[in-house]
Structure formats: C-alpha cells, structure tokens
Design brief:
This protein has 453 residues and is mostly beta strands. It is built from four helices and 37 strands.
C-alpha cells in the first residue's frame, strides 16, 4: 500500500517553493513514485514532452514545484512529475546519480547542518556521487570521502558548474598530460573502467582503463567525461570514475588478484554487462551454478561462466556450494488462494480499499485471505510480520511478497501465484494485475516472503 505520509516539515517547504533553475538547484527532500509507468516531463505540464518514465517505488529527489508538478531528479536526470504520483519524505539513501559542485571552496560536512565538521572542501565543477538526501542537504561521496553538501551548491547540470574552467585549484600540478592547455589532469578511480565511444552505457567499448590511470579531461556533460588517455585514445567514461588526485585512487574498489570458484545463491540470478543494475542482463543463473570470480567492483563480482563474462551482485555468490533441493509442492490451500486471487485481475485500485469495489495492495491481500478464514494485518509493513519467512527461491503459490521502497520502508505487497509471477493491486491506472517478479521494477525490492498457510 502506497502511503501519502508527508513529513510535516517537508510539506511547508515543498508547497512554498517555486521552480528552481538547474544551474543552482535547491533540495527539498525525496519522494517515492506511487504509480506505474509515470511520465517524467520536460516541463511542469501535461503538454510538455515525455523524457523518461518512472516506475512504482522509484525514489526521486525533489528540487521544487510548479503548477501541480514537482521538479525531480530521477537516475541523475531532471524532469517534472505530477504531484498525484508522489509520496513525500524528508530523507532517504540511494543512488541518485552524478552531480557537480557549483561554488568555490564548498564545504563538505560530516552532518546535514552547518554545525557539522568540515570533512573536505570542493571546487566548482567537481563531480560528486549523490548517495542520499537529508532535508535540504545532499549526501555525497567525493574522492573516497562521504559527507553532506547544502543543496544550492550542487547541480545536476554540468553547464552550470564551470566544470571546464581553469584556475579553480582542481588540476594536479606536476602531472600534465600532453595536449590542449585548457584540459585538466584526472585519474581513473575504479577497476576495469570502460572507455566508450559515446556518453552512454550502450556505446561501444574502446578500451579498459586501469585503476589510477592518468587521463586528460576535455569536457563533462550529463554525468559523462570526454577524456584522452595516455596512449592518445579519446572517448567517454562516467564522471563518477574520475578523481582529482592520485592519493584518492587507493579508495577505489579493490580488484581481486586471484580468481576463485563461487556458487550462485538463489534462482534466476541475473548476470549483467557491468557492475550495477543499470547495465543490461546477459543471462540468468540457477541456484548452485558454479562461476569463476575474477574481480570485485564495489558490491559486484566480475564472473565468468560458460565462456561468458559479466557481473553478479556479491550477495548472490557464495564460496561454498549451497544445497540444491527441489522446491516443495505447494499446499492445496495455498494454490486455492492463488487461484482465487487471479480471478480478481482487472478489479479497480482505490487507496484504502479493502473490497471488490476497490482495493489497495494490502487491502487486496487481506480480502483474499479473509475469504479462507485467515486474518492478516492491514498494512503492507505489518503484513510482512504475518506467517513465517521463506526464502525467495522456495516461494509457493499463496505466499505473500513484500517490497521495500526508500530507506527500507515496506510499501507494497502481492500474492505469489507460481512461475515467477505475483498478483497485486498495483495502482489506479492498472487496478489488480499480474506481474513478473523478475521485472526491473520489483526484483531488487523484495524485502520479505511470508507463508501463511
């Protein structure tokens, strides 16, 4: 169930602001998208072009509001979403993309207030990885250090950050690379960073840059840096993988020096082309499949399996082979519950609804189980405490699946029906529908699987 539980302090702030120019963006907390396939528009009206779509549960940064729309940042891209599809909160951790410092000698503090100790200072144009929001402060990672920067000093638009200006104190003296005097020296921060032919993960890979390699920064745009390597190749790398000094290189993800055999822990585990969920899926692996682990990049392992190389989230790899057993047969009552739930596909979604005139997600679960004399708690958060926990790989028809959004808050729930699918009251646009559990909107948000029968 999606709750419009708006933090009181944020309400007054959000309603009072007007649209903020991207070159000097403010920050007013975060919001969770409550509808499926919600349009992200280029301006604050339905006549503005659609630049992206957001899925239920996506968390966005709030930068301002105008005409019943909020200006937001989704996956590092700025746009506008209608108020009706947002549920607000004051803070959340997450991956909010790459942004840029907009002032000189900007303080990065240990806490989200001006009384926090200064962790470091940053210059105009410095790329930072935004990993959270706390009120009007951005939580950032910069050169291996984590801290908070006040909203007005952070921009998602590199054009407003003077990223290419010289004399800002960011160049490393005594480390010049041959080429244009207007370019600046940077260092690769990460293992096996890819130099691409264009500013996109879909662009071709020209070469691999090693951790600590020196490059010449030519320009920065939309989170991508156009660089020249020491052997004269030009291309694009994600700006988050660039550092201002070789000293910060030691904070980059460690690269494993020796390969080892690991085992997949879970069913339908995805092997991706790069070390994040934004990369394409190469294949899926079953529980117990052996893989050769060749490297580590943050929370992702580089693996080779059946002659194919890719990345798997470290949580799905074990050094010991798991016991692979056949899934237990579904209980007859569990199958009956699943069959009944499917019969309500197409029924309307109504916030707070608990009967066929209109369901919300937890109201749907409560109603279906009530038909079989089984009492559940009312909200998705509380239904995660009903019954007993089962592993995702052992799901049976009739089990319930709970999904977390934002900072671990459980805000959605559905009923598993078998074959990797679940039925749920999704939103007012779709009503009750059947969804693939491995879809991108849900697979990484599974917080609990519970069995009640």
């Amino acid at each position: 169930m999606h709750k419009k539980a708006i933090a009181a302090g944020l309400v007054s702030s959000v309603l009072a602001v007007t649209t903020i120019a991207s070159a000097n963006a403010a920050c007013y907390g975060v919001a969770t998208v409550t509808g499926g396939s919600v349009n992200v528009r280029s301006g604050p009206s339905t006549s503005s072009g659609v630049i992206a779509t957001a899925n239920a549960g996506d968390v966005v940064v709030i930068e301002g509001n105008s005409n019943n729309f909020h200006k937001v940042v989704l996956n590092g891209k700025e746009g506008y979403i209608a108020d009706d599809y947002l549920s607000y909160s004051n803070s959340a951790d997450g991956n909010f993309g790459t942004a840029y410092i907009t002032g000189s000698d900007v303080n990065v503090r240990s806490t989200a207030d001006t009384s926090g100790a200064v962790v470091t200072t940053a210059q105009a144009g410095t790329p930072v990885e935004v990993i959270g929001v706390n009120g009007r402060w951005y939580k950032v990672r910069i050169n291996g250090q984590t801290g908070y920067v006040s909203g007005p000093y952070v921009s998602y638009s590199s054009s407003g950050s003077s990223a290419a200006s010289s004399g800002n104190g960011s160049a490393v003296s005594g480390s010049a690379v041959s080429g244009s005097n207007s370019s600046e020296v940077r260092y690769i921060k990460g293992s096996s960073v890819r130099l691409r032919s264009g500013p996109s993960t879909s662009s071709g890979i020209l070469s691999i840059c090693n951790n600590g390699a020196q490059v010449k920064l030519n320009s920065v745009s939309n989170g991508w840096a156009y660089v020249t390597t020491s052997d004269g190749k030009t291309g694009y790398v994600a700006a988050a993988y660039l550092s201002y000094s070789p000293q910060s290189v030691s904070s980059a993800p460690a690269q494993s020096q020796q390969s080892w055999t690991g085992y997949i822990k879970g069913n339908n585990v995805r092997v991706r082309s790069g070390p994040s969920t934004s990369y394409s899926i190469l294949t899926t692996l079953s529980n117990g499949t052996p893989v050769t682990v060749t490297s580590q990049d943050g929370s992702w392992d580089g693996v080779t399996v059946n002659g194919q190389s890719g990345y798997v989230s470290s949580v799905y790899i074990s050094s010991t082979k798991p016991v692979v057993s056949a899934s237990p047969a579904a209980s007859s009552k569990g199958q009956q519950i699943a069959n009944t739930a499917v019969q309500y596909v197409g029924y309307p979604y109504v916030y707070g609804g608990t009967d066929p005139s209109g369901f919300d997600c937890s109201g749907f679960v409560k109603y279906i189980f009530g038909l079989y004399g089984i009492t559940t708690n009312r909200t998705a958060e509380d239904q995660a405490r009903n019954g007993y926990a089962v592993d995702r790989s052992q799901l049976q028809p009739g089990d319930i699946i709970c999904f977390s959004y934002g900072s671990g808050y459980i805000g959605h729930v559905g009923i598993y029906i078998g074959n990797g699918q679940f039925v749920h009251a999704c939103n007012s646009d779709t009503g009750v529908i059947i969804t693939d559990l491995n879809s991108s909107s849900y697979t990484n948000r599974v917080a609990a699987c519970r069995r009640l029968v």
